[in-house]
Design brief:
Layout lengths: L1 H67 L5 E2 L13 E2 L2 H18 L4 H16 L3 H15 L3 H16 L3 H12 L8 H14 L3 H14 L6 H13 L1
Parallel strand pairs: 1-2
Helix pairs in contact: 1-2, 1-3, 2-3, 3-4, 3-5, 4-5, 5-6, 6-7, 7-8, 8-9
Length: 241
Amino acid sequence: MKRAERHHLKGNELANLAIGARQMVEEKRGHVLAVGATVVIVVAAAIGYVAWRGRVEARAGALLADAAVLDEARVGPPAADGAPSTGLSFATPREKYQAQLTKFKVVADQYPSTDAGIFARYREAATRMALGMPPEAAAAFQQVIDRAGNGIYGRMARLGLAEAQARAGQFDQAITIYNQLAQKKDDQLPIDGVLIQLGRAYRDAGKRTEAEQTFSRILAEFPGSPFIDEAKRELESLKQA
């Protein structure tokens, strides 16, 4: 009898659970449907954003490729009459830099948040340096840093910013950045390359002792560095000064 009652009670429990579950589903049906619709909307929006982002990146990449074509342009006098055409050419390096500056700036201004736009801004900054415009180059490098953060473009831009500051006579700011970059042992930037720039910044700032220590560090820590000869020449020059 007890066994039959337990079985009966168990059956009632299962029935009650089933009824309760069905009631809960009915009560929550509107909420469930709303959540489902929200998920569908979010997924659709995400897919749309990815597709839109892809189109934007593609357009930015096409513009960047058009700008990069100028890298291969010849610099020199026009070809002689009757000579075969060799493609784009510029009479002077400055004319070529000016043309590159215009094209890279267009990409960077139109697509500032894309990878192509960030790289174009970096190229704009580097071109401004080549044109002898360190303050303007520093501003462009800073924009890259703001966009790229700690990415490789951001670190390269910090190196460029320090060089621009040094050329503009802002030695303390440049030295601070060089020292920060030189302390990042696992960084993708070549530390010996950073040190040679740091040593020159110390030299130009009139800080002879710090410059000698920096150049000597290259000799001691990076015996296989491609900057070894430059570091030796800098040390010899400082000793003779």
